[in-house]
Amino acid sequence: MKKVAVFGNAGGGKSTLSERLSQITGLPLYALDKIKYQSGGTELPHEDYKHAHQQILVTDQWIIDGFGCMETLWPRLDEADTLVFIDLPLYVHFWWVTKRLITGYFQPPSGWPENSPILRSSLSSYRVLWLCHKYLTPKYREFIEQAQSIKNVYHIRSTKEISQFLELIHAGHK
What we know:
Radius of gyration: 15 Å
Structural class: alpha/beta
Strand order of the largest sheet: 2-3-1-4-5
Order of helices and strands: EHEHHEHEHHEH
Strand content: 5-15%
Number of strands: 5
Number of helices: 7
Largest sheet: 5 strands, parallel
Shape: globular
């Protein structure tokens, strides 16, 4: 486990899991939202984001958390030796986006740039939830099915499996 891609629908706990995974393994963590968006939610120019993403991919070790864009998603999943796909029931994603919206006014969400516009970003997450579930999640499932023979694949389907995954990794790094 040297190059880890953590991916899945919005509000699935990717950033929280990635932070904990980085603490356990010592691998450097790159949250794509913090790369793609600057303080206050301003988007980095697309070419600058792609360049920054590519600079991470060519390093020896990383955990990359998030989506980024379609253009960088598949090369990242190809480059990773370990895939962590968070595939919770859709209602859990909706609930966690709502919870993040409410608590985000008191504590900035994990993995988000400073001064992110909580309401605007949350509304965007709500729009993305169904689209990702309908169009991208089936592609993710197909990809990890094919990748299982050549990569470490963790297909997390419940909140309990998140804890079990982290316990497994922690036990392996003692």
